[in-house]
Automatic annotation (TrEMBL):
<keyword id="KW-0067">ATP-binding</keyword>
<dbReference type="GO" id="GO:0016874">
    <property type="term" value="F:ligase activity"/>
</dbReference>
<dbReference type="Pfam" id="PF04107">
    <property type="entry name" value="GCS2"/>
</dbReference>
<comment type="function">
    <text>ATP-dependent carboxylate-amine ligase which exhibits weak glutamate--cysteine ligase activity.</text>
</comment>
<dbReference type="InterPro" id="IPR011793">
    <property type="entry name" value="YbdK"/>
</dbReference>
<comment type="similarity">
    <text>Belongs to the glutamate--cysteine ligase type 2 family. YbdK subfamily.</text>
</comment>
<keyword id="KW-0547">Nucleotide-binding</keyword>
<dbReference type="InterPro" id="IPR006336">
    <property type="entry name" value="GCS2"/>
</dbReference>
<keyword id="KW-0436">Ligase</keyword>
<dbReference type="InterPro" id="IPR050141">
    <property type="entry name" value="GCL_type2/YbdK_subfam"/>
</dbReference>
<dbReference type="InterPro" id="IPR014746">
    <property type="entry name" value="Gln_synth/guanido_kin_cat_dom"/>
</dbReference>
<protein>
    <recommendedName>
        <fullName>Putative glutamate--cysteine ligase 2</fullName>
        <ecNumber>6.3.2.2</ecNumber>
    </recommendedName>
</protein>
């Protein structure tokens, strides 16, 4: 059974004001002192952010328990210095982000200017194990049409600088400002994938292969495919659902490759449109169906994603979890819908953030 790991980026906020706070160094110092050698928490581009990574897990119940534990530990460390953590992909309240220290971040700030300073966005990256780079690239080629559906499920960033953006995932629109971000063409082989990365590095436009921000890529550090399209999810249960479906997609794609089935060759132009539609509509309207690239109701597309991966999900014991999780998410709404509902009830973005601090640890 393929293992799955999750990286989540959390927003540091004032527990009463809801305003982002540039305190990541202090939180990391406390975490490092207490959890020496575990290296669960890491710094991120901005000092208002905190990242953690789970261990690889085979069982989704274990993965969910670890996400909950890491969120609670992050909240405890932050609370000790007067902060709170919120699983929000963008700050609902106005913020002036602070770029972190270090050569890499200084290079990014100088090279990309305002695009770097505005990247205070929090994502969720899912790592799924693969047997080889060849299998990994075959998976990357075959999951491309379905990634926008994961983005719609996870969408959790409707507000930006104190305003409603009209998007479900504005984080994804900000993320697209990086020159290497977004969907990719079909590579066909690991050798071709490596040549493409080498060509990108040779342009001098990106610093290293860690800045190859494909929607799905081979991990630099682990024997995994890393799926990078999701907003950080407001609820841990949604993060587990996204990870469950991601593993189903990877296993389904690997089986198709071994069976000699060619990947669907949708153009990057169409995939970008699918990404945009998922960011705009989330689960509240239509998505572009991965098979046809034509509009279809979001609920129908989500059901077809589960059907597409049903055999792989069943073999992992995840099919019931996936069906029930998707049905519940469609009933409750994704994080963007929950945030907008909180704003209608409270009429205060500050209160939205304070409530989301609570949701983060549920």
């Amino acid at each position: 059974m393929r293992t799955v790991g999750v990286e989540e980026e959390l927003l540091l906020v004032g527990p009463e004001t809801g305003e982002p706070q540039a305190r990541s160094a202090a939180v990391l110092a406390r975490a490092s002192h207490e959890d020496a050698g575990q290296e669960v928490f890491e710094k991120e581009l901005h000092e208002q952010m905190l990242e953690f990574a789970t261990h690889p897990q085979s069982e989704m119940s274990a993965l969910g328990a670890e996400i909950v534990r890491c969120r609670k530990e992050a909240a405890r460390h932050a609370g000790e210095i007067g902060c709170a953590v919120a699983a929000l992909a963008t700050s609902p309240l106005p913020v002036s982000p602070s770029v972190g220290a270090g050569r890499r971040y200084r290079w990014m700030a100088e090279e990309y200017g305002i695009a770097t300073h505005e990247q205070l966005v929090c994502g969720c990256h899912v790592h799924v194990s693969v047997e080889s780079d060849e299998e990994g690239v075959a998976v990357v080629d075959r999951v491309r049409p379905w990634l926008a559906v994961l983005a719609a499920l996870s969408a959790n960033s409707p507000f930006w600088q104190g305003k409603d953006t009209s998007y479900n995932s504005y984080r994804s629109r900000v993320w697209q400002r990086w020159p290497s971000a977004g969907p990719t063409e079909v590579f066909g082989s690991a050798a071709q994938y490596d040549r493409r990365v080498a060509d990108m590095l040779a342009t001098g436009t990106i610093l290293d292969d860690g800045m190859v921000y494909f929607d799905a890529r081979l991990s630099r550090r682990y024997p995994t495919v890393e799926i990078r399209v999701a907003d950080v999810c407001l609820h841990a249960s949604t993060a587990v659902l996204v990870a469950t479906l991601a593993r189903g997609l990877v296993e389904t794609a690997a089986r198709e490759w071994r069976a000699g089935r060619e990947p669907v060759d949708h153009s990057v132009s169409l995939l970008r449109l699918a990404d945009w539609r998922a960011a705009r509509s989330g689960l509240t309207g239509e998505l572009l169906h991965p098979a046809t690239m034509r509009p279809a109701p979001a609920a129908e597309v989500v059901r077809d994603l589960v059907d597409h991966t049903a055999e792989a999900l069943a073999d992992c014991g995840d099919l019931y979890r996936a069906r029930e999780g998707c049905a519940e998410l469609l009933r409750r709404g994704n994080g963007a819908q929950v945030q907008r509902g909180l704003l209608r009830r409270t009429e205060s973005l500050r209160d939205v953030v304070v409530e989301c601090v609570r949701h983060t640890q549920e």
